[in-house]
Q: What sequence folds into this?
């Protein structure tokens, strides 16, 4: 460790970092002692379904914005230019479709676990398959999330690696276990603000030290870092408009449409309107988050002019180089290095807390509760807390596994989303958009989707296509098998589980033709849902103008 690094952190910096951890614990403690004191699973796992849209929306961004993005995106922009920024185009459909298709269906069924949908639409084994896939995905992902900031910080400042991993993991486990989803959401709100503040501080100081906005612009322009829209149709090209703007939509759908961490937030909103509104509010904040990390990459380029400093670090990692840049910038400004460390750990904490709580929820709702229908509420709540805690401890073990992997952290995370999240998205799309898809063979479909992975062609695809490729494979195979084995009959489809896409598109046709084509009558009907003994109202035929525009837009886009 360089002796100058020791001066990097002043007392103020440690205080700021300490305040972050203490405030998170404080919010956990507050929610453990207020409200219903976390004595029901409804409160612990679903926040009493009473959240307003602002906290839900900030929490939604926090779930999948971890230190991986904060470090990985600037590293990507520094090395390859601003092409990655075009993923922002995918946010439009990637949020509109969840808001108008996934949220209405899932919210009206009053589910607790998103995978309950798969049982209502298909069968129990499909639900279990969805749940296990989700658990697999999140367990690997949370290891990456907790390891990344600790590793990068260790490489640059000599912060004790495993001490940092332990501190983050344990603090997060503690507030998640005592405070439930309310604590997770409110800490997310606080942590998201710290995250933005930390990134903004680096950019402002970085621009000043480089000589102002125009100087930064001149250097990145001369250094060829401003990328034009790359329309190369080659699907093996890593980042083009097609991989980012189209492949990215599927990535966004798998995260914001059907991932339990997000679905649980939508379901915790007090009304469907709040859920939809929170999804809309994600758009500007996610664009801001993307812009901040891209600009940080550009400022870093302007400052270093493309020199490769990674060899100086010994680790040869561009991810560590980002931290090294930040520390160079913030050196001598008391409080700011601490603010950035707080920003990194806020990002990590908010992601792993969502993972712990959503993992506890699906384990409880999908794997345990169905086998013990007579379990008392008190026992179920206690068990949920034990589960949240166990996943917290498992996270530490997963951090160790991540330690053994290579590759850029951003790519690792996005590959996991695509490889594992893609097939689940496919199952949901099959159920929601294709009324003919039947239930008996869905498992084989999912397995087939997974079996497609090892093919060489798949690996040469840009990783941004993984979600789209796996999702489409599942849908295609599912449809073929459904038609071969006899498509689902309209009357067998659980009401409220299908989005009558064709019915909406062909709204000019008479009712009876629509019924033939769509499989289900897209009519206003009142049914008793199997999900909960509660009246569920389907109002899909009276599509709002937004929905009509959305549906036509998607179809035009697909053509
Ligand atoms: C999910 C996206 C792609 C949305 O921009 C972004 O947040 C991202 O690249 N996340 C990487 C994973 C992470 O930050 O943990
Ligand atoms: Na986060």
A:
């Amino acid at each position: 460790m360089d002796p100058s690094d020791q001066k990097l952190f002043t007392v103020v910096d440690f205080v700021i970092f300490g305040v972050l951890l203490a405030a998170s614990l404080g919010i956990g403690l507050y929610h453990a002692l207020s409200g219903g004191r976390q004595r029901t699973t409804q409160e612990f796992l679903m926040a009493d379904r009473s959240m307003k849209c602002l906290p839900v929306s900030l929490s939604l961004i926090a779930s999948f914005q971890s230190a991986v993005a904060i470090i990985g995106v600037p590293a990507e922009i520094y090395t390859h230019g601003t092409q990655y920024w075009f993923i922002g185009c995918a946010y439009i459909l990637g949020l509109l479709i969840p808001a108008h298709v996934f949220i209405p269906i899932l919210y009206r069924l009053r589910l607790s676990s998103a995978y309950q949908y798969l049982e209502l639409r298909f069968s129990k084994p499909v639900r279990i398959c969805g749940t296990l896939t989700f658990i697999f995905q999140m367990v690997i992902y949370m290891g990456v999330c907790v390891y990344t900031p600790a590793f990068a910080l260790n490489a640059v400042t000599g912060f004790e690696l495993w001490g940092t991993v332990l501190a983050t993991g344990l603090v997060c486990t503690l507030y998640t276990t005592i405070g439930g989803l309310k604590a997770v959401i409110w800490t997310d709100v606080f942590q998201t603000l710290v995250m933005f503040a930390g990134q903004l501080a680096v950019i402002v100081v970085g621009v000043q030290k480089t000589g102002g906005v125009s100087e930064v612009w001149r250097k990145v322009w001369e250094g060829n870092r401003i990328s034009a829209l790359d329309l190369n149709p080659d699907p093996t090209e890593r980042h083009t408009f097609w991989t980012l703007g189209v492949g990215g939509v599927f990535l966004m759908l798998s995260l914001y449409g059907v991932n339990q961490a997000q679905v649980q937030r939508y379901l915790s909103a007090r009304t469907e309107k709040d859920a939809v509104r929170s999804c809309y509010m994600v758009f500007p904040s996610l664009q801001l988050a993307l812009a901040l990390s891209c600009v940080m990459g550009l400022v870093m380029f302007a400052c270093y002019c493309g020199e490769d400093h990674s060899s100086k670090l010994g680790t040869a990692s561009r991810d560590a180089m980002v931290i090294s840049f930040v520390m160079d910038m913030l050196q001598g400004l008391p409080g700011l290095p601490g603010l950035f460390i707080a920003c990194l750990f806020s990002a990590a904490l908010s992601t792993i807390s969502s993972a712990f709580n959503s993992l506890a929820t699906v384990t409880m709702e999908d794997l345990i509760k169905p086998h013990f229908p007579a379990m008392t509420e008190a026992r179920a709540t206690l068990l949920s807390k034990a589960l949240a805690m166990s996943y917290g401890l498992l996270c530490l073990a997963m951090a160790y596994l991540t330690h053994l992997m290579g590759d850029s952290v951003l790519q690792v995370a996005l590959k996991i989303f695509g490889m594992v999240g893609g097939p689940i998205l496919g199952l949901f799309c099959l159920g929601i958009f294709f009324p003919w898809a039947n239930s008996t063979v869905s498992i084989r479909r999912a397995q087939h989707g997974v079996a497609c992975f090892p093919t060489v062609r798949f690996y040469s695809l840009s990783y941004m296509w993984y979600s789209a490729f796996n999702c489409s494979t599942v849908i295609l195979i599912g449809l073929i098998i459904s038609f071969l084995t006899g498509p689902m009959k309209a009357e067998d489809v659980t009401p409220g589980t299908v989005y009558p896409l064709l019915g909406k598109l062909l709204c000019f046709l008479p009712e009876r033709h629509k019924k033939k084509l769509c499989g289900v009558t897209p009519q206003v009907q009142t049914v008793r849902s199997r999900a909960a003994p509660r009246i569920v109202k389907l109002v899909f035929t009276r599509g709002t103008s937004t929905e009509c525009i959305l549906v036509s837009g998607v179809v035009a886009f697909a053509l």
Notes: The chain has a mean pLDDT of 86. DSSP finds 22 helices and two strands in the chain. Residues 244 and 264 are 26 Å apart (CA to CA). Residues 64-66, 68-69, 87, 145, 255, 286, 290, 351, 410, 413 surround pantothenoic acid (ligand 1) (CB under 6 Å).
